[in-house]
Amino acid sequence: MPDTGFMSPDNVVANANTFFNTAWLVEASGIIVFLATTGTQTVDGFENDGTLPAGATITGAEVLLTNTYVTSGTGTFDIQISINGGSSFSTSITSGTINTTQTNDFTLGGSSNLWGLNWSSFSDLSQLQVKGLNGVNNIYSQHVQIKLYYTENVHTPTLNIKSGEIIIKGGKLTIK
Question: What is the C-alpha radius of gyration for the chain, rounded to an integer number of angstroms?
Fold first, then answer.
């Protein structure tokens, strides 16, 4: 099954009561903070706002958070995605338990998880957004990425002959 590969954001859309380091938007550098229950963070611009192949059908979406930790105790938080530029968001997927180890990576969703969204007319990556919210304790993550899984529209080739002849030397020709 084809996929987009992990795509990185290039823009902070919204941050309520949160700290953003703009270097966070450079892959593998900076940090994002999900501030307990008081803040949400939303990012977009995945892979320079490209498009999916014509006729692609989304089968799932996966969000990867790298080097995610809390400074004390343990915590969880929710991730949502939007496919319409933030007009609405998916159902939440809650992270696993996060502790003080700074090397934990979290994968939410997967190749067959549609996040409760109808992807039937989606193709424009500029409409993708990822939002983190509802943390328990302050959650720190070095980077967030998203990968979309899809099937491609299979085109059955057609042979049209307007004139001439077809010569078959051996073998079998089946026309259905």
Answer: 22
**For residues 58-65, average pLDDT:** 93
- Six token digits for residue 150: 């899809």
Judge whether 30 and 22 are in contact, CB under 8 Å: yes
What are the φ/ψ torsions at residue 131 (nearest 5 degrees)? -125, 135
Q: Are 67 and 141 in contact (CB under 8 A)?
A: yes
Dihedral-angle region of residue 121 (phi above 0 means left; psi in -120 to 50 means alpha; beta otherwise): alpha
For CA atoms 44, 39, 90, 28, the dihedral sign is positive
Residue of 42, 34, 2 whose CA lies nearest to 18: 34
User: In this predicted structure, what is the pLDDT of residue 22?
Assistant: 37
